Amino acid sequence: MTNRLTDQTSPYLRQHADNPVDWWPWCDEALATARAEDKPVLLSVGYSACHWCHVMAHESFEDDSIAALMNAHFVNIKVDREERPDLDKIYQMAHQILTQRPGGWPLTVVIDPHTQTPFMAGTYFPATASLGMPGFADVLRQVADWYAGNSHKLGDQKQQLDKIFARLDPAPGQLPDRKALTRAGKELAASFDRKYGGFGSAPKFPHPGSLALAERLGRRGDERAARMASFSLEQMAAGGLFDHLGGGFFRYSVDDRWAIPHFEKMLYDNGPLLAACAQQGLTTTAHATADWVLREMAAPEGGFYSSLDADSDGHEGAFYVWSQAAAESALGDAYPLFGAAYGLDRPPNFEGRWHLQRADDDATLAEQFGLAVDTVAERLAAARQTLFEQRAARTRPDRDDKILTSWNALMIGGLFTAADALDRADCATAADDALAMIRQHLWCDGRLLAVHAGGRSHTSGFLDDYAFLLDALLTALRTRWHSPDLAWATDIADALLAHFADDANGGFYFTPDDHEPLLHRPRPFQDESTPAGNAVAARALLHLGWLIGEPRYLTAAERTLAAGATLMNDYPMAHSSLLLALDEYLDPPPVVILRGGDPDGVRTWRQAAARTNALATVYVIAADAADLPAGVADKPAEPDGPVAYVCRGTVCAPPARSVAELEARLG
C-alpha cells in the first residue's frame, strides 16, 4: 500500500510513500480534513540527505503500531524543507520559542488545525524512550490526550506566539557606521579556533558567510581577519570535511578538528566554498570541487541537483571510508606514501575504519621518503585517482534530483567565480547552461518558481530565489558580458521590489505578497545554512543600482540595511552577510566598466585593476554590445583601444585611456 506521497516531486516525500502512516503533503485539503475531523496536525519536516530523518523513519514511521497511533489521532503532513523553506523557517522559529533551544531535522511539530499554531515541538524522537529522550509512541499519546481536553486553550497560545513573533521582527534603526564592522571583527576573533580554524566549537559548520566577512575585513586592512579566513579554509580543505578522492565538501564536522563529517554533500555549501577556494588560491581543492559538481551534480537539461545522502547500504559514510587492507590492495607500492599522507598509518578514526584527511603535507612527506616535492604531489594524485576508481564500484549514496532555484544560483555564482580564477571555460559553460534552464523552466510571466523536479516546475519563488539569482547574474556579467542577462537582472529586481518589499519597515519578506496565508510572514536577516536573503538582496541591489544608475534599487538596499541595523549591532556574527552589504554601502568598491579592446589588451587591463584594488568589480563590455541601459550606454567605447570608466557609488571619474590612468583612478 502507498499513501498520498507517491506522486510528489520531492524524493524525500517519495521515500515515505510506502509508510503505513497516512501521510499528506502540505495542502489545503489536508488542513481542511484536520479541521473537519478536529484532529491536530502532526507536521514532520526533513530532507532526503538527512541521516536522522532516515533513522526516525525506520524506527517510527515504518512501525505499524506507531503508524496506527498517528493515523488515529492526527492528520499527518510530511514536508520537504528544501521545497517549502517557508514552512521550515516558521516552525523552526516556533520550535526555538517553545523549547528554548535550537531546532534541526527531523523537525516534529504538532499544530492546531484551525490556526496553524504549534503547541508541541521537538526534533528526533526514538521509537521508545532512550538516552533521556521520551519515546515517540508515548509523546503521541500524551499530545493526543492533551488536545482532547485542552484544545480550547489554543487561542491564547496563538495570541502569545503572535506577540513573540512581532517582538522578534526588527524595527528599522539608524544605519550603523564602520564601528559595527569593527565589533564584528572582534567577535569573529573571539570565536575563532586558533588551532584548527573555523568559528565556534563542535559541531563545526563551514559558515561561508563568516569566512567571507573575515576575508573582506582582511582586504580592508585587518591582517588578523585575513589570516582567520585563509587558515580556516586551509584546515577545512585538509581535513575530513573535504572529500579528498571525489571533491566537494560535506555539510559539517562533528568534531573540532574537521576530521569526521556528517557525510551528506549539499549544493548550497559547495557553491560559496568553491568560490572561496578559487579566490584564496586553494586551486587543487577548487578544481576538485568543480570537477565533482560537473561530474555528479549536473542535470542533463542544465542546472544542478540538490544533495547527496550521508548514507549508503544503510550506514552513514559507508561510501567514503576505507580499511587499511582495501587501500593497500588497491595501491600496492604506492600505499606507504599515501597512508602517511592521509592518516592510514595512524589509529582508525571512524568506527574502526579510516576517513581520509591530510596527516602530513607534501614537504614533510618529501623529506620522510627522500623524494622531490613535485614527485610526492604527482604520486599522491595518481593514488587518489586509483582509489577514486575503486570507490566507484561501491553502492553510491542516493542523490536528491530536485533542482532548486536558490541553491542553483549559489552554485552558478561559485562556478562563474571559479571560471574566472581558474581559467576554466567548462565551469562558465555549466553555469550558463544552468541559467538557461532556470530561464526556460523556472521563470514564468515575470516571476520565479522555486522547484523543478520530475519534469515539473512548481511553488512560487521565495526571497532567496530572487536575491540569490540576482546576485548570480551580476557575477555572470562580471565574468562575461551578456546584455540579456542584465535585462533579466532588472526584471528580477523589479519583481523583488513589487512582491516582497516591506514598504513600512524596509527589507523584504521571505514570501511574496500573493503567497498562501501562513502563521507568520518572516523577514529573514540572519544567516542560516545559506546567507540571509535580505543580506544578499541588499548587496545585489547596491551593485545593480551602481551599475545602471537606478536610485530605486539603491534606496531599497539602504532601507534593508536600516531594517537590520539593530541586529547587526547586537549580533554581528549571526549577520555576517548583512555586514558585507553594509561594508559596501559605507565604502562603495570601485566599479570599472571596460569598453572595447582585443582579448589580450582587456586581460592586461583587468589584471591591472585586480592588482591595484582587490575590491574592484570589473565589467568588460564589447564595443558593439547592444541593448545597454542608459547608465551603461553613456560610457561608450572609443576607436583607439580600451577605455575604462571608474565609478564609486554614484560618482564616476573621467575615462581612463591607459593602464596607468586606470591604476591612478583605482589607487
TrEMBL record:
Tell me which residues make up the Spermatogenesis-associated protein 20-like TRX domain: 2-162
Source species, domain of life? Bacteria
Which SUPFAM superfamilies does the entry link to? Six-hairpin glycosidases, Thioredoxin-like
- UniProt-listed Pfam families: Thioredox_DsbH (PF03190)
UniProt name for this protein: Thioredoxin domain-containing protein
**Higher taxonomy:** Bacteria, Pseudomonadati, Pseudomonadota, Gammaproteobacteria, Salinisphaerales
